């Protein structure tokens, strides 16, 4: 991987790379920054970017956007990232589990999801109601989120690093270890959104957004 030493054993699992700064802690910032600027220029609604827990692993956020627009913008952001990476002679991977070692985190494609009821005062009640709906349809979601019908992302979910095994559905407030999380600020405000932490970085955005809407809003 980009910037890794020849002896991969010196890579520090869950080390100082997350939100890191400084030589030795961050690799690829020029690519991330160029991608951010290119997306902004193209009108893609990218709202942030940060270094992740493994050296040369990066995250960016798209949105907030509604329904199919979120999928459109994510799709274009991936295309732009590949084009930007060409200029640096780098190959981009969206593999949910690019490293065989279970001591190294995979790459997620978490989805923050809300309805108007969830965002209004008292919305936490509707967020908690969505938990049960998502649990009932958990297997369907895992299949629809993954371009390989669950096969590629299962390697990440079952590796045990900040991920819940695919056969177990858990939902909780504030915990980063569950399938679904309600962030601390949402709990404090009593309204906001839920975070679906199950999708991998290669999430199929159109099927994912469709499945979430059908399950949570249409009971389908």
UniProtKB/TrEMBL annotation:
Keyword terms, alphabetized: ATP-binding, Cytoplasm, Ligase, Nucleotide-binding
EC number: 6.3.1.2
SUPFAM superfamilies membership: Glutamine synthetase/guanido kinase
GO-annotated cellular components: cytoplasm
Positions of the GS catalytic domain: 1-220
Entry keyword annotation includes Membrane: no
Primary enzyme class: ligase
Location in or out of the cell: Cytoplasm
PROSITE patterns: GS_CATALYTIC (PS51987)
Source organism superkingdom: Eukaryota
Single GO biological process annotation from the record: glutamine biosynthetic process
GO MF annotations in UniProt: ATP binding; glutamine synthetase activity
PANTHER family, per database record: GLUTAMINE SYNTHETASE, GLUTAMINE SYNTHETASE 2 CYTOPLASMIC
Family per record: Belongs to the glutamine synthetase family.
Full protein name: glutamine synthetase
Protein species of origin: Ixodes ricinus (Common tick)
Lineage: Eukaryota, Metazoa, Ecdysozoa, Arthropoda, Chelicerata
């Amino acid at each position: 991987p980009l910037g890794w030493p020849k002896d991969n054993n010196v890579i520090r699992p869950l080390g100082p790379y997350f939100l890191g700064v400084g030589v030795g802690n961050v690799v690829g910032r020029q690519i991330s920054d160029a991608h951010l600027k290119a997306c902004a220029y193209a009108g893609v609604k990218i709202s942030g970017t940060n270094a992740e827990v493994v050296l040369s692993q990066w995250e960016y956020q798209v949105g907030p956007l509604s329904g199919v627009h979120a999928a459109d913008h994510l799709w274009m952001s991936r295309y732009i990232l590949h084009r930007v990476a060409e200029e640096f002679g780098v190959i981009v991977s969206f593999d949910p589990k690019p490293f065989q070692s279970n001591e190294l985190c995979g790459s997620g494609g978490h989805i923050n999801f809300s309805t108007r009821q969830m965002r209004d005062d008292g919305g936490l009640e509707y967020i908690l109601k969505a938990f049960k709906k998502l649990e009932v349809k958990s297997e369907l979601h895992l299949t629809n989120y993954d371009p390989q019908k669950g096969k590629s992302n299962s390697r990440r979910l079952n590796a045990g690093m900040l991920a819940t095994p695919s056969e177990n559905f858990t939902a909780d407030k504030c915990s980063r270890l569950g399938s679904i999380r309600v962030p601390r600020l949402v709990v404090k405000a009593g309204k906001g959104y839920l975070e679906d932490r199950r999708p991998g970085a290669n999430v199929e955005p159109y099927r994912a957004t469709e499945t979430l809407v059908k399950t949570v809003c249409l009971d389908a």
